[in-house]
C-alpha cells in the first residue's frame, strides 16, 4: 500500500485501533502512552504497523487542511508534555491534525449507550439496566470508566425522581 504525507492511517493492535499521520519518508506521527501520560512521537512506519504488516488509510470527507499542513499540525505536538486536554487518544490526535476537530469514537459510543440506557429505563428493572450498562460500556471502554460511573450516577439520580 502506498501512503502519502498527510494520510490518516490506522492499524489494529491487540484489541484496539491506533491512529497516526503519515509524515512521509516511512515515518508516522503517532500518540504513544508513557509513564507521564502520552506524547506524540515520530516513529518508523514498520514500528507503527508492527507484525500485522499493513495499515488502513482512513478516508475522511471533512479534511480541512492540505496534506503538508496536516503533517505540520501533527508535528506541532511532537514531544509536548502534557499534551492538550482535547487530545484523549490516538484517534482524537489524528482527526485533530486532519480536520481541526478531535474525534473520539469510544467516548461517543459510551455517551450514546448511556443515553440509550436512560431511555430504556422505563422499560427495564434497575438491576438489569445496570448490568446492561456495565457490559455495553465499561468493559469495552475501561479508559472511560470514570465518565461511565458519573453517567450511571446521573441516571440513578434521574431514576430516583420517579
Kindly summarize this structure in a few lines.
The protein is an alpha+beta fold and 162 residues long. Helix content is 43%, strand content 21%. It is built from six helices and five strands, in the order ββββαβααααα.
Give your account of this protein's structure.
The protein is of the alpha+beta class and 162 residues long. The chain has two domains: 8-103, endopeptidase fold (from Nostoc punctiforme), CATH 3.90.1720; 106-160, no CATH class. It has helices at 45-49, 67-76, 90-99, 105-120, 126-138, 145-160, and strands at residues 8-13, 16-24, 27-34, 37-44, 56-58. Strands 4-3-2-1-5 form a five-stranded antiparallel β-sheet. Strand 2 (16-24) and strand 3 (27-34) form a beta hairpin. The chain is globular, with a radius of gyration of 19 Å.
SS elements, strand count: 5
Low-confidence stretches: 121-127
CATH class category of the largest domain: Alpha Beta
Structural class: alpha+beta
CATH architecture of the largest domain, by name, is Alpha-Beta Complex
Shape, principal axes of CA atoms: globular
According to CATH, the homologous superfamily of the largest domain is endopeptidase domain like (from Nostoc punctiforme)
On the 0-100 scale, what is the average pLDDT? 75
Cα separation of the termini: 57 Å
How large is the count of helical segments? 6
Biggest sheet record:
5 strands, antiparallel
Work out the count of structural domains: 2
Looking at the structure, the CATH topology of the largest domain is endopeptidase fold (from Nostoc punctiforme)
Helix content: 40-55%
The string of secondary-structure elements, in order, is EEEEHEHHHHH
Q: Largest sheet, order of strands side by side?
A: 4-3-2-1-5
The fraction of residues in strands falls at 15-25%
The radius of gyration is 19 Å
Amino acid at each position: 500500500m502506498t501512503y502519502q504525507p498527510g494520510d490518516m492511517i490506522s492499524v489494529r493492535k491487540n484489541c484496539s485501533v491506533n491512529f497516526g499521520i503519515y509524515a512521509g519518508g516511512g515515518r508516522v506521527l503517532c500518540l504513544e502512552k508513557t509513564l507521564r501520560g502520552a506524547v506524540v512521537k515520530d516513529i518508523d512506519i514498520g514500528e507503527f504497523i508492527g507484525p500485522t504488516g499493513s495499515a488502513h488509510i482512513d478516508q475522511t470527507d471533512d479534511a480541512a487542511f492540505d496534506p503538508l499542513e496536516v503533517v505540520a499540525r501533527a508535528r506541532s505536538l511532537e514531544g509536548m508534555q502534557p499534551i492538550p486536554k482535547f487530545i484523549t487518544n490516538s484517534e482524537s490526535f489524528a482527526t485533530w491534525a486532519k480536520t481541526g476537530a478531535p474525534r473520539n469514537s469510544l467516548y461517543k459510543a459510551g455517551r450514546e449507550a448511556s443515553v440509550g440506557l436512560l431511555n430504556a429505563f422505563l422499560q427495564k428493572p434497575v438491576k438489569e439496566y445496570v448490568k446492561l450498562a456495565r457490559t455495553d460500556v465499561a468493559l469495552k471502554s475501561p479508559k472511560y470508566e470514570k465518565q461511565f460511573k458519573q453517567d450511571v450516577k446521573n441516571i440513578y439520580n434521574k431514576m430516583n425522581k420517579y
